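hiii, so i know i said id send this last week but things got crazy w the move. better late than never?? heres the sequnce for the chain we talked about at the cafe, plus the structure i predicted for it. fair warning i was half asleep when i ran it
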Amino acid sequence: MEKIAFLGLGHMGEPMARHLLAAGHPLSVWNRTPEKADALVAEGATAAASPADAVREADVVITMLAGPAAVRGVADAVVPELRPGAYWVEMSTVGPEVVRELAGRVPDGVTLVDAPVMGSTDKAAAGRLGILAGGDAAGVEHVLARFGPVTRTGALGSGAALKLVVNTAVIGGVALVAEAMKLADALGLDEDTAKGALAAGPLGGAVARAFATDVHFGSDLAVKDVSLATEVTQLPAMEAVLGHFQAAAADPGIVHEDVARAVTHIRARRDS
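okay and structure toks below
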């Protein structure tokens, strides 16, 4: 079994790492907040004092971090320690430009794969995430399959690119549902009646996500992902969506809460 280093034990990373332990992989884990590794260590993982310590003996290195800045910071520490023959699987949502930047930094003999995921904490726990794998993923596809079905997306960076497309659609859909419910509020419609009508139409999936209670994707992460998308090309509708989530993320009580909380914020937001 491959020795795996898993860096980043947030809402998604911890349950993902647990699947690797359950499969019998020797697992070294690191998180910026060390206490988040305690539960995995109790189940058999080894806590590393630093990202560099985590990856030195690893056959596969997996990063699941908050965004580009965190990935770049970890890269500074791990790139000199990656051993020849190792795979680095970057699973954060950072966009293809960051993946290409990392590709220019990895040493000879190390294979970089971008493999962001579709799905939230519920699917991470169940091992039913959708994995979008770009680059030469053949050597680690069996490892990625521990997290859920793997879709090979093409060249390096294509997984990260497709993840931006998927997240843009989901986040935009949630904002659209929030605005539709704001209109229903203004028209004096019964909330459950309006919600039911929307759920029965083309936006049914977005309605379910907008009112979900058992998953987690913070408004701060929505701001990060939509910002990455709107830097690529002109997306006027998503610029408006970005404004909604930036306003929600400015509220300390909402910023790290699931985007469903932002729906309430958008509905209550006063017209300018």
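btw The CA atoms of residues 135 and 155 lie 5 Å apart. thought thatd interest u
miss u guys!!
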